[in-house]
Each structure stands twice: as C-alpha cells, then as structure tokens.
Amino acid sequence: LAAVERQLVRLGLDLQVGFLHGIQRDRHSLALDVLEAARPAVDLWIWTLCHETALTPEQFSCSEQEGCRLDKEGRQTFYRDWFARGLHAAEIPARRLIGRMVRTLRRSASA
Predict the structure, then answer these.
(1) What angle do CA 99, 84, 35 make, to 5 degrees?
(2) Where are the beta strands (DSSP E) in 9-80?
(3) Ramachandran category for residue 12: left, alpha or beta (phi over 0 → left; psi -120 to 50 → alpha)
(4) What residues does 79 pair with on adjacent strands?
(5) CB-hemisphere CA count at 13 Å for 54?
(6) Has residue 111 got a pLDDT over 80?
(7) Residues in contact with 70: Cβ distance below 8 Å, sequence separation at least 6, in sequence order
(8) H or E element: which one contains 36?
(9) Which is nearest to 42 in space by CA: 56, 69, 34, 20?
(10) Helices and strands: H and E segment counts in the chain
(11) N or C: which end of the chain has fewer CB within 10 A?
C-alpha cells in the first residue's frame, strides 16, 4: 500500500478521493482502489501457495473471535513467499492501472 501511495502522491493525485472506496477521514481511498486491480493476481498467488502445499490446513486456526489465522510456521512461509513472488505479482497490475490513469488524465487535460 505504501508504494502505491507514494507513486500516486508523486503524480499529484489526491489519495482521499476514491471511486470504489468512498471518501472517509484518514483513509487513502484512491490507493485502495488501485490495489483492487491487483486482487486477482494476489488471489492466484494465494491459491498457488496453498496448491503447492506450502500452506497446509493444519497451519490455520479458526475461531469466532479472531477469524482464520495462520500459525507461526504458516506466517513464516507466507511472508517468505510474499517477498519472493507475491509482492511482484501484485505490483504489476497496480502499476498498469496507475499508468492508464495518468495517460487518461493527461489526455483529458490537453483536450
């Protein structure tokens, strides 16, 4: 999220104004909107991580109070793979969307 926020600020865009996520105090709605473009890639990465049996059902615990959580071993596996593959998978669609936004804004500003 921080990398997306930095890129949007560098482009002079208002982080508070989103389209999918409404304006809310202290929420960077535009950055959250951009990250929605990465959701399918992140979902695929998670599915792959589970399918490769890097994460197993035994590493999850579920409760009414805390929801589903990974144990320590599962978290280590998750974060190790996130920084090796997941983060890159999420960055590509987010960067593409930001690029399209900037091109569209430039075209409408010059029209």
Answers:
(1) 35
(2) 60-63, 67-70
(3) left
(4) none
(5) 15
(6) no
(7) 55, 59, 60, 78
(8) helix 29-36
(9) 34
(10) 5, 2
(11) C
Dihedral Cα 57, 62, 66, 70, nearest 10 deg: -10
Residue listed under structure tokens 């997941």: 86
Token look-up 């999420």 returns 90
CA-CA-CA-CA torsion sign (69, 32, 24, 21): negative
Q: What are residue 52's phi and psi, to 5 degrees?
A: -75, 5
Residue with tokens 């389209």: 19
pLDDT tens for each residue of 10-48:
888 888 888 888 778 888 998 888 888 888 988 999 999
Phi, psi of 17 (to 5 degrees): -95, 105
How long, in residues, is the chain?
111
Contact criterion met (CB below 8 Å) for 81 and 54: yes
